[in-house]
Amino acid sequence: MISKHHASKASTLANRFPENPILTPSQVRPSREDMEVECILNPGVFSYAGKTWLLVRVAERPKQENDWISFPVLEDSEHLIVKRYRRDHPDLDLSDPRIIRVGSSFYLTTLSHLRLFCSSDGVHFNEPDDRPSIIFPHGVHETFGIEDCRVTTMGDQFLLTYTAVSENGVAVGCMRTTDWVHFERLGLIMPPHNKDCAIFGEPVNGLHHCLHRPSGIDLGGNFIWMAESPDLVHWGNHRCIARTRAGQWDEARVGAGAAPVKTSEGWLEIYHGADKHHRYCLGALLLDANQPYRVLARSRLPIMTPDMDYEQKGFFGNVVFTNGHIAEGDLLTMYYGASDTVICGATFSIREILDSLK
Amino acid sequence: MISKHHASKASTLANRFPENPILTPSQVRPSREDMEVECILNPGVFSYAGKTWLLVRVAERPKQENDWISFPVLEDSEHLIVKRYRRDHPDLDLSDPRIIRVGSSFYLTTLSHLRLFCSSDGVHFNEPDDRPSIIFPHGVHETFGIEDCRVTTMGDQFLLTYTAVSENGVAVGCMRTTDWVHFERLGLIMPPHNKDCAIFGEPVNGLHHCLHRPSGIDLGGNFIWMAESPDLVHWGNHRCIARTRAGQWDEARVGAGAAPVKTSEGWLEIYHGADKHHRYCLGALLLDANQPYRVLARSRLPIMTPDMDYEQKGFFGNVVFTNGHIAEGDLLTMYYGASDTVICGATFSIREILDSLK
């Protein structure tokens, strides 16, 4: 059992921005006039051209009318269309706020795309005015949207790993850019059911590495795995490196955050864990520098818990979820989604996180 | 709806061996004296040294004693041990015949290994006397066994793709051999939840291809996917190529059989489909010769259904399941598991299967 005293003490490792939340749905314009932004979530983070950038997941839905439920879907792999059903349609099941069931078909209530924001101070963010800011889903494996993108900086290239959602399943797509104008799509790098994929910023022993989160059925669970690749496109040697822990804060699901930070003690990974009440907290893993599939240490208690009002109330409450940060010396500036609704920031001391693992 | 007339007509494409079943559990010695062979299943098939070979999945369990339930598990990644619980133990749940639940832990009632059998006539099979016949599970991702191995012949090498089962989940492992004595383990090539993986016998457009069967959660389903690889170890560009079909014989799950057969019309793949009553039938897919992710044709009706007594009654009844065959000219000699209990054989005319797809 986690005592309140310990949980509270542990969560002081996070120094939240006083400006939180730093981005809310009302600050984000919809991609079309007939859509509205329902929530903004879980940004990838990178430095580029002297600024801090967020690649935010923007979940939109059509403006709703009385007596009708309408929802978005990608048609012909690229055109966003709106489907409409009368709310009293006998085949309609709206019992899950995220999912619309029509007979044997599933749809999502919202469709997510990725949106660029940049900032000179790391706190006040706006869409850039010198380039397109929206990355839309594309193709038959993204018809329900793209979500929760990690951005890994590797030399002069940026690798985007995101959740690709369609009626084919939930998988991991990858694209690559050097200028944030042209994007090379590398296809799905992980088949369903998979998400939370982050590529290491440099090869280890001559091979690229990534963390990912497949899900088991009957056997296994929502565990963190590692894979290797010679070329960033093809991945193998999958290994389970961190499982859920019964009775603890990460008992139900765990998943990687951003690319790990290289430290003198090994690779430091901030991950999320959820308990059976769907409360999402953050913890840390320390991975061996040369054999990163070896977990040297793991947070006994969370390093951050959903304590603030904006972390406890929203589209999906009691959630702090990160997939992006910037490390400079000892300072880790982390951006995170709170309650699946708004974007926030917090800083950590890398030294303090490492010390907490001892 | 499939009429009885049509189903019966379609299933005549299979010419069953009159000797069926050709291998039964009583003909297979257990790997240890304290174990018994519960069932034998789903062989990989290949030609080697002038003979026909089966790589059979052998599911064993410890000999059971009154008042006790005992089950096998791999300890320290390589030693088979037997766990025992009193049947009235309060944490024990035996409601699923395949699974033993102890509190929050899962185990399997049986542990599977792979066993070689060979034959000069393709009908009468025995374990070889000139080499080890057993391939045991090994390592932390195989602690509950290895199952349903496809064997792909590629030049002078054989590629074994099998289901690796452990508390980490159900994934696909691969090993390689040229002499069936020494095996090179290539690690897990597909993360959970995945099975039914078959590698093509030759590259297409310079890349290796495989079929595999990830499973979705909430979205997606039990669909056939394709992946590509430069080296057989690392796989990417995952694409869904065949989904289940609502209301049809393959409405609940589909999965590839063996490596596809190269024909003048494209790659011919025999796959299994199950309906919501868990009745497993076989059908065919015709894949484009140069773009094998394009499905040119698909069986409207099964090419084989579980009609015989030995296909309808057993450990898991109403199942015909294949993952191995040998093609010579127009003759496809297929081996299959019946009712998850015994091994059988049947021949098909490749021409007749292709014609049935028109």
Description:
Two copies of one chain form a homodimer. Chain A is mainly beta. Helices cover 5% and strands 50% of the residues of chain A. In chain A, a hairpin with a 5-residue loop joins strand 6 and strand 7. The longest helix of chain A has 8 residues. The relative contact order of chain A is 0.15. The N terminus of chain A is likely disordered. At the A-B interface, strand 13, strand 14, strand 17 and strand 18 of A face strand 13, strand 14, strand 17 and strand 18 of B.
Features:
4-stranded antiparallel β-sheet, mainly beta, disordered N terminus, homodimer, globular, 358 residues
Residues in helix, % of chain A: under 10%
CATH class of chain A: Mainly Beta
Task: Tell me the number of strands of chain A.
Answer: 26
General form of chain A: globular
Mean pLDDT of chain A: 94
Proportion of strand residues of chain A: over 45%
Class derived from helix and strand content of chain A = mainly beta
Any idea what the CATH superfamily of chain A is called?
A: Glycosyl hydrolase domain, family 43
